[in-house]
Each structure stands twice: as structure tokens, then as C-alpha cells.
Design goal:
Elements lengths: L1 E7 L2 E5 L4 E5 L8 E4 L1 E6 L2 E3 L2 H4 L4 E10 L3 E7 L4 E7 L2 E10 L1
Antiparallel strand pairs: 1-2, 1-5, 3-10, 4-7, 5-6, 7-10, 8-9
């Protein structure tokens, strides 16, 4: 089985061909192809981690859609002072499909 560990949006994701992965927002149109930098490549028993060999590795993904994450509600409260603060946040995400590893 061939899979790669790629750097995507400040995190690392384990991907193989055909996987659907949700990343932080990528500035690309739906239907376009992006290339993700590989950190490690595993091809059966062979593991590639050297920077020179990884420079040759291409992990390509097709952008499917832009989505938004679940809403996170932040509520701050201090007892006996009347202080309350509410804040919300939704992450901007992109869903991609891995098309080639290698």
C-alpha cells in the first residue's frame, strides 16, 4: 500500500490515492488541481524521508468544494462581577480528493 504524510494547513495528514481530505482553506477554484508538499512517503516496505528524495515526490489533489466547519461557541463568565462575553467562530475549510501519490 502506498501512502504519504503531507503538510497541509499547519497540520500533517496521512493520504493515499482516492482519499477525501478536509484542509484549511486553500486559495484555489473548485475543479482545479493543487500540489501538497510531502513529509514522508511509504511504498510497501520502503520508507522515504530524505529531503532530496521528497523533493521529487508529487502529491496531487483535486479541489472539490469550499465548506465551513462547525460553529464553536466561546463563552467567558466571571462570577459576582456581571461579566459575560459570547463569541462564535467557524473555520473556512476546503475538501479535496487525492488523485496521485508518487
Amino acid at each position: 500500500m502506498v501512502y504519504a504524510i503531507v503538510r497541509a494547513g499547519g497540520r500533517q495528514e496521512k493520504v493515499s490515492v482516492g482519499d477525501l481530505v478536509t484542509l484549511d482553506r486553500v486559495p484555489a477554484e473548485a475543479g482545479s488541481t493543487i500540489e501538497l508538499p510531502a513529509v514522508m512517503l511509504v511504498d510497501g516496505d520502503k520508507v522515504t524521508t530524505g529531503a532530496e528524495e521528497l523533493a521529487k515526490v508529487k502529491v496531487e489533489a483535486e479541489v472539490l468544494e469550499d465548506v465551513r466547519g462547525k460553529k464553536v461557541v466561546i463563552h467567558k463568565y466571571k462570577n459576582k462581577t456581571g461579566y459575560q462575553k459570547r463569541q462564535g467562530h467557524r473555520s473556512e475549510l476546503t475538501r479535496v480528493k487525492i488523485t496521485s501519490v508518487g
